[in-house]
Design brief:
The chain has about 160 residues and is an alpha+beta fold. The chain has helices at about 55-75, 95-105, and strands at about 5-10, 20-25, 50-55, 80-85, 105-110, 115-120, 130-135, 140-145. The two termini are about 30 Å apart. The relative contact order is 0.16.
Length: about 160
């Protein structure tokens, strides 16, 4: 059995014990597929398989990688007022950020599985952007920033 798509988000109505976490590709809407993943072989949805997982789990996984890179590379912890945010977005929506990361970033790799590219601001040596790629298939982006720098009216979304 090959899995090509991943469901990301809060528990969708199709999630039930009868599926045991495995559903067919036509059992949920396309917008539930994690960005940059999806069918690559051209099979119809009814022939595709899906692995489900929560958005919260993916954010925690990305945050763990970001915090680990800071500790391993810089011997530093990310502590308040700094915040780590993990973003699952399509590459075309963050093209400018990808350009910055690719141009100025340093790569930390545990190949062949995980490649992390990081750009750190020279101003505070903490504010940073990350591109995390797993098995050249799964991508997520992360940012570390000082929450004290945000306007008071800005609120952080935690979904």
């Amino acid at each position: 059995m090959r899995f090509h798509e991943v469901f990301l988000g809060s528990q969708h109505e199709i999630w039930s014990k009868q599926h045991n976490g495995k559903v067919r590709g036509n059992d949920f809407p396309d917008e539930s597929i994690y960005p940059n993943l999806g069918e690559k072989g051209g099979r119809p949805p009814e022939q595709q398989h899906v692995i489900t997982f929560s958005a919260k789990s993916m954010r925690r996984f990305g945050e763990k990688i970001v915090r680990g890179i800071f500790y391993i590379e810089d011997s530093r912890f990310i502590e308040p007022p700094y915040i780590v945010e993990v973003h699952g977005v399509h590459d075309e929506h963050v093209a400018e950020i990808i350009t910055i990361i690719d141009k100025f970033g340093e790569i930390s790799a545990r190949e062949p599985g995980i490649v992390v590219c990081r750009v750190v601001s020279p101003e505070d040596a903490m504010s940073s952007l990350f591109k995390i790629e797993i098995w050249q298939q799964f991508k997520m982006y992360a940012s570390v920033y000082n929450s004290a720098d945000l306007p008071q009216s800005t609120s952080r979304v935690d979904y």
